[in-house]
Design goal:
Number of helices: 15
Shape: globular
Mean pLDDT: 97
Number of strands: 13
Bound molecules: adenosine monophosphate, magnesium ion
Structural class: alpha+beta
Length: about 475
């Protein structure tokens, strides 16, 4: 399909006008293409050569409005660092509508009703980070929003310094957040809360559409999806950095990429967001925070779903839904095909060990994937081999109870433990080059993001330890 034939739906606009604000994008000056993602184009049946169509840059710049589109910003609220903020919403994002079930958004396309004194813009730096990482997460099998392309411009914006403005086109099967529910709950607009829930069921949980108990069942599935998502984050070593309830997806997707990081050396208490001094959103706190966020969602849904039933589900989240989701993923990472009771303990010991041996998280699991009893390759990558040795003895014991062959285990592990992830130092290199007008590394990282489990000899240098000076740095929220 060419852009001219693309027809968008705007079902969100069938909701009450309080849910959104109709608003047109404000274009950037002298826009140019930074990158186009043919993988995402396929999802919306867009021709893979659409990036050569001059209308493509215009689409991202908001000057080519596809047929059927009526641009709008979505209204929501949310708990930010534990405090309720009744008025958030898409302050710099404008929705164009949906095609093939993908809701298209322009992030950085100017002010909206919800901009709250901010400029409605996004910088090249944060746009490249979101563009690449959302694709990276998808290819790691972690539910995420996607991104179709990115443009830069001559428009300047003020952050810590003067930076270039960009727009990234994001795509998601849903943009509804926990905070969207909170908005109507705290305003006591319960009929609108119900309207929103019905909308979400049709958009995201259609299998419950005709079920009399659909509200509660939707809540249960949100809890389960969130548990799975956070377990995947923990297992891959992803620190989101701003887990406010407005950044929690009702579909259990990774959304709103800000000061995120993949762990370099494994640090349980790592805080990627350097304004988060207390570490509320540290890597190790993410499971607890997701429970807290789900509790806030249950409160927002309490006028229309039994509190007792929701509380039971939340209790289950803590007791076994999250722990089981996490242990299952970790079993895959460790190549354990059988489920044994003590596996949770083995994994707990591993986390403590990783914390104490100073090792690159990704490199550790990739190296372990080839483990054949020879410990040297593992000793070579840790600072404290004696501590690791203790855990390896437990692991040896556990492996001896497995029935499948070593080569089968290694093969499975190599498909569960990526060789390549997008570390912040890699993203930063691509950004620095892009700010100087060279976008080749953005393309390289887009390719690497799509091949996390492959051996890519030409990119071997990205598979090793992070250079010391770039390890586990904190990032600014400014974007
Ligand atoms: P975040 O936690 O980064 O997802 O954003 C929190 C809120 O601030 C959301 O409502 C955003 O739309 C809004 N916001 C962030 N940056 C800007 C900006 N430059 N202009 C307008 N709104 C913004
Ligand atoms: Mg957000």
């Amino acid at each position: 399909m060419i852009l001219d034939n693309m027809i968008l739906q705007t079902t969100y606009l069938s909701l009450d006008s309080e849910f959104y604000d109709l608003t047109d994008p404000t274009p950037l000056d002298e826009p140019y293409l930074i990158s186009f993602n043919p993988e995402a184009a396929k999802l919306i049946d867009l021709d893979s050569n659409s990036c050569n169509d001059p209308d493509f840059v215009a689409l991202l710049n908001g000057t080519f409005i596809p047929k059927g589109s009526r641009p709008f910003a979505m209204c929501y609220a949310g708990h930010q660092f534990g405090n309720y903020n009744p008025w958030l919403g898409d302050g710099r994002t404008i929705n164009l509508g949906s095609v093939n079930g993908w809701n298209l958004q322009l992030k950085g396309s100017g002010e909206t009703l919800y901009s709250r004194m901010a400029d409605g813009r996004a910088v090249v730096r944060s746009s490249i980070r979101e563009y690449l990482m959302s694709e990276g997460m998808h290819h790691l099998g972690i539910p995420s929003t996607r991104a179709l392309g990115i443009i830069g411009s001559k428009t300047k914006v003020i952050r810590n310094s003067i930076e270039q403005a960009a727009i990234v086109m994001r795509m998601s099967t849903s943009w509804v957040r926990f905070g969207t529910f909170e908005y109507f709950y705290y305003r006591r607009e319960y009929s609108k809360l119900e309207m929103l829930t019905e909308y979400v069921i049709v958009e995201s949980y259609p299998h419950f559409k005709d079920d009399d108990d659909r509200f509660f069942k939707m809540f249960c599935e949100v809890v389960e999806r969130t548990a799975k998502l956070i377990a995947q984050w923990q297992a891959i070593g992803f620190n989101h950095g701003v887990m406010n309830t407005d950044n929690m997806s009702i579909e259990g997707l990774t959304i709103d990429y800000g000061p995120f990081a993949m762990l370099d050396d494994f640090r349980y208490g790592y805080i990627c967001n350097h304004t988060d001094r207390a570490g509320r959103y540290s890597y190790g706190e993410q499971p607890n925070i997701s429970y807290w966020n789900l509790t806030m969602l249950s409160k927002a849904l309490s006028p229309i779903i039994s509190k007792e039933r929701m509380q039971q589900k939340l209790d289950d989240f803590g007791a076994f839904i999250y722990p089981n989701a996490y242990v299952d993923i970790m079993r895959d990472k460790l190549g354990l095909s059988m489920k044994l009771d003590d596996d949770a303990l083995l994994i707990e010991e591993l986390v403590e060990t990783l914390h104490n041996v100073f090792v690159d998280h990704t490199l550790f699991f990739r190296t372990l994937s080839r483990y054949n009893g020879d410990k040297t390759p593992l000793y070579d990558i840790v600072m404290e081999p004696v501590i690791l040795d203790k855990w390896l003895k437990l692991y040896d014991d556990r492996l001896s109870q497995e029935t499948r062959t070593q080569s089968q285990r290694q093969k499975e592990m190599l498909n569960s433990n990526p060789k390549y992830i997008l570390k912040n130092y890699m993203l930063q290199k691509a950004i620095t080059q892009a700010e100087g007008g060279d976008y080749s590394m953005v393309e390289t990282l887009l390719y690497i993001a799509a091949h996390p489990y492959d051996e890519l000899p030409e990119f071997e240098h990205f598979a090793g330890d992070t250079p010391e000076e770039y390890k586990n740095l904190g990032l600014s929220c400014s974007s």
